[in-house]
TrEMBL record:
One of its GO terms (biological process) is mitochondrial electron transport, cytochrome c to oxygen. This is Cytochrome c oxidase subunit 9, mitochondrial. It is found in: Mitochondrion inner membrane. The keyword Oxidoreductase applies.
Length: 66
């Protein structure tokens, strides 16, 4: 058994390549979906909220005559 040759090639380097690919995909998707959330949901909601409070402040100022 000491001189037996395995019928398949050793897996050297596969873990490292797979890890780099998995990390690249995870970071890429995380960045993509993070930006999609930030600019597709968070910023429009924030701008709508700010516009609402600006309108209320303008109405309040108009009632007070400022």
């Amino acid at each position: 058994m000491a001189g037996a040759v395995a019928p398949f090639k050793p897996i050297t380097g596969m873990l490292r390549r797979g890890l780099i690919l998995d990390l690249s995909i995870a970071l890429g998707l995380g960045f993509t979906f993070g930006n999609a959330f930030w600019y597709g949901y968070h910023m429009p909601r924030t701008n709508a909220r700010d516009a609402h409070y600006k309108k209320l402040e303008e109405q309040r100022a108009a009632r007070q005559g400022n």
